[in-house]
Amino acid sequence: MAARKVAKGAKSATAVKSVKSAKRTQPSNAPKRTASASTKERTKSAKSAKSAKSPSSFALTRAPSSRAPAKSPSSFARLKSGKRSSPRGAALEAHATVIYNRLAAEYPDAHCALDFTSPFELLAATILSAQCTDKRVNLVTPALFARYPDAAALAIANPEDVEDIIRTTGFFRSKTKSLIGMAIGLMDRHDGMVPAEMDALVKLPGVGRKTANVILGNAFGRNDGIVVDTHVTRLSNRLGLASGTDAVKIEQALIPLFPQDHWTMISHLFIEHGRQVCLARVPRCAACVLADICPSALV
Questions:
Q1: Less Cβ around it within 10 Å: N or C end of the chain?
Q2: Residues 104 and 89: beta-carbon distance below 8 Å
């Protein structure tokens, strides 16, 4: 009996050892348990959604854009584009007539802003007015004319003395050269007198067509042309009467639009209006008598 029990126990122990040995000797390439395909897809989708909701580290640390916000059109740009089309042909002549009549009523006392008592003084003052205000020139000319009252005196002037007098008008060295050269030209060719002809005037040192038109229109009452300065250039463009900045071309465009006896006055009217209302940087369109017919009006 005891012998059977011992044999049975030995047999059981042998079976247990065989099972354990079988487990240890199982091949290493047996298939491993893996997650199903659907589980992988769900995990991948979850990661993508999380990434989309959370900004990347680059986005969190990126500096704000330095690009300036878009600006609204400037006054200058709107001035160039305008709100109305510029008239043409017969309508342009009618447009010019209305402009003249309104400005003449607005500035009945418009005149040459330079102070003078003779053609010689006006000629000298006009040469000084280049790149200088008429107000500044009027402060300088009394002393100049007190010392050099005519061409004869100015022709023999010491350049340094003239420079000291006109220094505040700017470009005083070149202006001194023009003044003395002009006086010498008058003495040599015209007996010291200022000629009343365009061809003769423009041959004098420092005298161009614009200066000659100033002298002829204001010292001699002759309408041989139209003075085109910065004010006339600006207003001619804004009012649709001419285009560009070439003074000669602007004068040629204006001449057919106005009667000849208005040629001197139209420049005075434009200059006065340009100084008071149609300013270069910010025109006062709300106060302008031409606002309703001006192609460049901002109102």
A1: N
A2: no
Cβ-based neighbours of 297, under 8 Å, separated by 6 or more: 82, 83, 84, 285, 288, 290, 291
**E-only strand ranges, 63-125:** none
Angle between helices 159-166 and 172-190 (to 10 degrees): 120
Q: What is the pLDDT confidence band of residue 230, given thresholds at 50, 70 and 90? A: very high
Closest of 221, 199, 225 to residue 210, by C-alpha:
225
Q: Are 266 and 226 in contact (CB under 8 A)?
A: yes
- What whole-number distance in Å separates Cα of residue 214 and Cα of residue 221? 10
CB 295 within 8 A of CB 85: yes
- Cα–Cα distance, 44 to 63 (Å, whole number): 31
CB 265 within 8 A of CB 105: no
Give pLDDT tens digits for 24-67.
544 444 444 444 445 555 555 555 544 444 444 434 344 444 45
Distances (CA, A) of 177 to 14, 126, 150, 184, 231: 133, 14, 16, 11, 27
Of 235, 230, 233, 231, the C-alpha closest to 295 is 235
249: tokens are 């071309």
Which residues are catalytically annotated?
A: 210, 229
